[in-house]
Design brief:
Citrate Synthase, domain 1, mainly alpha, tricarboxylic acid cycle, 389 residues, Citrate_synthase_sf, binds carboxymethyl coenzyme *A, 2 domains, Cytochrome p450-Terp, domain 2
């Protein structure tokens, strides 16, 4: 086995080759399958980006329509799965509800669990793409005590999700095109990010030949953490607290710099980006526009912008190359759309789903894949003898 290299947090260890996403953290470059994120953000749609990530190339219009149609045909949840939502406390956080429900999909589709059966993998892909937004919307409805609506397959994935989250059975739901467009853009920005914590989790679980539902359920749990997907919720809480306490951004920065109570500037810093996160750049550029159209909270946006301005001019942040990441401004937009804080990370999960699927599929098809099994450096006791009693 040879010498073992010690690399906590995988700072320098590549665990896989991958042809899906390219990041240059020093330059602040992000490309999906070769296409720069800003071009996709401007011209593409979440559905098209999902196809691109999963199949490797942009679809023709016919391919995109077929992809869209197949997803629409799988939106219904098994009625028994709906019963499942009643088993959680009313104030349950929707992330563990989401991961549990995705895990439970393995029990409803027991014939499609072979990770090497291409047809079944394709079916699981469509089921997940179609059902995750529905599960997410139901977790939300349950938490606010409202009835769950059936999906309306005349709508696409993003439109349907909006209606399932905000519609009521008693009245027609008017889609707000600004909101649909804004959410579509945010989902594109979250769709993949190479070997981040949740994607690596999906791969590690899948490397044991676990099925796609089980692997992605694990990824959702990894995303729940505040250092990963949970950061968008944490940012909004931070901004709120600064406002509620009437704090000046400068005073909050002092706390961060002195590492008082482990306070961090949430939404700042990244393992790979040592430059402005290109996704954050796009969100920031659109935040003002979207917030003015949706009537968002300008005061919190002002606090966020002042924090950013201070941070970018501060030696602490400059020396450590800490820049805003994708989560810094997204929460403000989600809030303006009407999503409660608890749903923010769920939105991240819906966005990241095609990336997880693409990475899982790439791994399963890769002849180099081996079961993931990190080594350790043992630091415990030497041999001890069990005392005679
Ligand atoms: N505020 C204050 N100090 C920070 C921050 C921050 N947000 N991020 C890093 N630092 C400091 C950290 O304390 C350390 O300082 P020192 O050298 O004095 O010990 C130095 O910068 C290096 O940071 P690190 O924690 O060793 O870096 P990492 O690559 O292990 O962690 C990170 C990356 C994203 C977990 C971290 O920057 C962080 O906790 N940020 C806040 C949470 C956040 O916004 N997460 C979302 C990440 S982007 C979306 C996603 O992928 O989920």
């Amino acid at each position: 086995t040879g010498a073992v290299t010690f690399d906590p947090g995988f700072m320098n260890t590549a665990a896989t080759t991958s042809a899906i996403t390219y990041i240059d953290g020093d330059q602040g470059i992000l490309r999906y399958r070769g296409y720069p994120i800003d071009q996709l953000a401007q011209h593409s749609s979440f559905l098209e980006v999902s196809y691109l990530l999963i199949y490797g190339n942009l679809p023709t219009p016919t391919e995109l329509a077929a992809f869209d149609n197949r997803i629409r045909r799988h939106t219904l949840l098994h009625e028994e799965l709906k019963g499942f939502f009643g088993g959680f406390p009313r104030d349950a956080h929707p992330m563990p509800v989401l991961s549990s429900a995705v895990s439970a999909l393995s029990t409803f589709y027991q014939d499609s669990l072979d990770p090497f059966d291409d047809e079944q993998v394709e079916l699981s892909t469509f089921r997940l793409m179609a059902k995750l937004p529905v599960i997410a919307a139901y977790a939300h409805k349950k938490s606010i005590g409202q009835p769950m609506l059936y999906p309306d397959n005349s709508m696409n994935l993003v439109e349907n999700f909006m209606r399932l989250c905000f519609g009521l059975p008693a009245e027609p739901y008017d889609l707000d095109p600004t909101m649909v467009k804004a959410l579509d853009l945010l989902l594109i920005l979250h769709a993949d990010h190479e070997q981040n914590c949740s994607t690596s989790t999906v791969r590690l679980v899948g490397s044991s030949n676990a099925n796609m539902f089980a692997s992605i359920s694990a990824g959702i749990n990894a995303l729940f953490g505040p250092l990963h997907g949970g950061a968008n919720e944490a940012v909004l809480n931070m901004l709120r607290e600064i406002k509620a306490k009437g704090m000046q951004p400068e005073d909050f920065m002092e706390k961060v710099k002195n590492k008082e109570d482990g306070v961090k500037l949430m939404g700042f810093g990244h393992r790979v980006y040592k430059n402005y996160d290109p996704r954050a750049k796009i969100v920031k550029a659109t935040a003002h526009d979207i917030l003015s159209k949706l009537g968002g909270n300008d005061e919190l946006l002002d606090i966020a912008m002042r924090l950013e301005e201070k941070a970018l001019a501060d030696d602490y942040f400059i020396e450590r190359k800490l820049y805003p990441n994708v989560d810094f401004y997204t929460g403000l937009i989600y809030k303006a759309m009407g999503f409660p804080e608890k749903m923010f990370t769920v939105l991240f999960a819906i966005g990241r789903l095609p990336g997880w699927i693409a990475q899982w599929r790439e791994m399963m098809q890769d002849p180099q894949t081996k079961i993931g099994r990190p080594r350790q450096l043992y630091t415990g006791a030497g041999e001890r003898h069990y005392p005679a009693r």
